[in-house]
Amino acid sequence: MSSETGFDPALYARFPTRAPRPDEEKEELAHIWCAPKGWDYLTAVNNSYIGLYYLGTAFLFFLLAGILALLMRVQLAAPLMEVLPQAVYNQVFTMHGTVMMFLFAVPAVEAAGVLLLPQMLAARDLPFPRLSAYAFWAYAVGGLCFFASIFVGLAPDGGWFMYPPLTSKAYSPGINTDFWLLGIGFIEISAIAGAIEIIVGVLRTRAPGMSLDRMPIFAWAMLVFAAMIVIAFPSVILATLLLEIERAFGWPFFDAGRGGDPLLWQHLFWFFGHPEVYIIFLPAAGMVSMIVATVARTELVGYRLIVLALLATGFISFGVWAHHMFATGLPPMTTGFFSAASMAVSIPAGIQVFAWIATLAVGKPRYSAPGLFVIGSILIFVTGGLTGVMVAMVPFDWQAHDSYFIVAHLHYVLIGGMVFPLFAAFYYWIPSISRRPLSDRLGRWVFGLMFAGMNIAFLPMHLSGLQGMPRRVSTYLPGQGLALPNLVSTVGAFLLAAGVLLFLVDLVRNFRFAPGGGTAGNVHDAGTLEWLPTELYSVRSIPVVASREPLWDDPALAARVEAGRYFLPRSATGLRETIVTSPLRAEPQYLQILPGPSPWPIAAAIFTAGFFLALTVQAYGFGLASGLFAVIAVLRWLWESDRRVAAERVDIGAGIEVPTYVTGSASHGWWAMVILLIVMGMIFVMGLFSLAFLWSNQPSYWAPPPAFRGAVPILLLDLAAAALAIGGRRLLLRGAAWPVVAFVLSTAALGGALWLDRGQWAAAGFAAEASGQGAAVFALLALQGAAVATGALMAGYCAARALRGLVTRPANTSIDLTMLFLAYAAIQGLVGALFTRAVGA
Amino acid sequence: MRAWAIMLSGLLIWAAHFFILYGIGEFIGDGFASRLAIAALTGVCLAICALLAAAVMRMPPRDFFGKWRMQLAFAGLGIGALAILWQGLPALLA
């Protein structure tokens, strides 16, 4: 067998070990990973708690958005109903879409990842537990405040995609739109924090031997999901920033009368918005792939093809964003490209559907509640997929655009592709975290009500759409043939709600959270590792994985894991820890010390939410203070990290020793920083695209940019900043003060370059409020300013750590990460200076 | 990185092809020169897929995981090539 890291795979033969393990080891593990008490539940960071909080909150938002849907259905049950005034109806449908997409769907699947992945990969926890806690609390606090806006009539009312010019200051002067633009800011932060956690977790904390070809499909799906968030979310982050800046300061990004273009919003939004559908679907598809194999009692058919399909969906979904814009008058050739990609993306989805059907066909399926939900999911999703191929055809899309046909299509896709799989997952995985499984008998009723309700609610919408009923209208006239299909839809919606209500009854009756062990266990006779006996420290010992369904292939594995016969049967350092493995073959590389409970993530989250919400209500002073406290709280939580322990190498089982501290590209921190820089890079690239798009579409507003020769000193300063950052890391060998000095100089060079760049544009007569070009250029400069400020903060943080003797030699992670950030900022400044001068030169 | 680049090569080439096509459509526009450029680009991308597929086939798999990776890369190149051809057709046939 080959090796990826130099680790000798023959060492796996030492497991299972034979010598008995003392009981004190297990007691020590239980003590280190002890359950919280009282207020400590707020400071818990363990994935079992955070995952459940996350999932519970997401489900709460599902219920709230579902109530909004019922209100809409009551209003539309008959012509000219007056249950909701038109203005309130606008808020209700906007909040329904926004909450379902941003506060339920993405967080729910992210929550499932946080809850299930460590157990599925047999890790003690994900690598950044405090980041998970921060992501959850920012989402929960901010999300609840955001939702509360509907109770005071300030909820957004421009549709979940917030198209300008409707959402511009001229047509939406109130703060409703600002609630949306700033309100989802913390959700974006939360989603990206979760994505970083999941990518690094899946690639670096798998059990030894779990090479990529043995990885559970759900983990593959979560990996692609998280990578898609990293690429897609920056676009909506930039879009919301630009629209908020336009509304607050009058920079005309989307104002066609001043050289902006409202279509730019649509490009930026849908570059996120369409992949978002697959961001939601892929984890759910991963759940279905896991469940279908168990209910069919056979291996998943086409594992390799499903992995390929997940990857292909991840790529091709980024080529379909403009199919939401076919009716805007795109150039015919461009329309053709997007139509082709929209049809092509159905191929990988089809591969997965055929694999599920084949698995059910070759196995001996049990039609239990999870099995029924899986089959229902396939039927509904395929129906939605077929209408999706219909609307991928441009002439048909022109007819069906903005009609109830689209409402029917998207609900079939999202309910079949995400909601039914999630309910299947509830019935399937709850026995792994609860003392009692949910009732299969009630579950069948839940499925029946939801399946019938869903189809009765949404099938008639195809008809009402084809009859010409537009979306987002609060009522319709009698005598148009719309009354009957709408009444049937309303009955179906309440049937669907009855199914959800019955599920809540089942949950109340049977769900008993048991993070410390004593769960119902492997009631489905599944084969993957999350069904091993677990406690708060996850598994007692981390097994060597030799197949995709280890529990099927080795029925005695669970007993041996529980007896401590594999890796890390005890705490090697007396602290929370997990094994970091290599990304391809999962070979043990080092022992990561995991941070424990802390109040700082929740403090940082509350202040982050406070920052965004205060800006929304224009309490700028409070917002600034809140932002400052958020930064302080983050720095305080980081202060306790990146510390060496006394033992440089420890035995992680059977005499195999690994280091306890690793720096450079092998470390998990390095990986997280690289992913964060990809996020920043994507925001910047979308900013460059915005500039080029405005130049292409509004040439009459374009003025010649400053000359290229003016950029020479800027480039020299940026290059010097990069050299100082990279050189500073090397200077650590000479002393802890040297890299700090280099970083401070690097930041100064970056600031100087930015000052020169801004000065040249101002001297050339450009102003941010004057034209789309000026606005786009100054927005890019502002992004660079944010990077420089963050770099300065990081340099200051390193200086403080150096003063306290926390910068260890010869290598140190904090120094590594600051170097990476500053080098990136220098490249961004350099590219920005050249690109802005090149466009329209 | 090399391992990931090989595994994802077909899809990466598709992505590059798609975004260049979009750039041509958005920033240059329709016309004979654009269509010629698209034909050339599609041909080049297909050729790269073919060359990479041949290279992947020549790589000796050292174990089961190695073989799995090669098969994934090979299938990815196949699906990537098909998608590239499909993506180029609207401009080439219109």
UniProtKB/TrEMBL annotation, chain A:
**A Pfam family it matches:** COX1
The alphabetical list of record keywords is:
Cell membrane, Copper, Electron transport, Heme, Iron, Membrane, Metal-binding, Respiratory chain, Transmembrane, Transmembrane helix, Transport
Task: Provide the membrane topology annotation.
Answer: Multi-pass membrane protein
Q: Which GO terms describe its molecular function?
A: cytochrome-c oxidase activity; heme binding; metal ion binding
Q: Where is the Cytochrome oxidase subunit I profile domain?
A: 27-558
Q: Which GO terms describe its biological process?
A: aerobic respiration; electron transport coupled proton transport; respiratory electron transport chain
Q: Quick one: a GO cellular component term?
A: plasma membrane
Please name the InterPro entries in this protein's record. Cyt_c_oxase-like_su1_dom (IPR023616), Cyt_c_oxase-like_su1_sf (IPR036927), Cyt_C_Oxase_1 (IPR000883), Cyt_c_Oxase_su1_BS (IPR023615), Cyt_c_oxidase-like_su3 (IPR000298), Cyt_c_oxidase_su3-like_sf (IPR035973), Cyt_c_oxidase_su3_a-hlx (IPR013833)
Q: Where are the transmembrane segments?
A: 52-72, 92-116, 136-155, 179-205, 217-243, 277-296, 303-324, 336-360, 372-394, 406-430, 442-463, 483-505, 593-613, 619-639, 670-695, 707-726, 738-756, 776-800, 821-840
Annotated ranges, domain Heme-copper oxidase subunit III family profile: 588-841
Q: Where in the cell is it found?
A: Cell membrane
Q: Please report which protein family the annotation says this sequence is part of.
A: Belongs to the heme-copper respiratory oxidase family.
* Name listed for the protein in its UniProt record: Cytochrome c oxidase subunit I+III
From TrEMBL, chain B:
Where are its TM segments located?
5-24, 36-56, 68-89
**Protein keywords:** Membrane, Transmembrane, Transmembrane helix
Name it. Answer: Uncharacterized protein
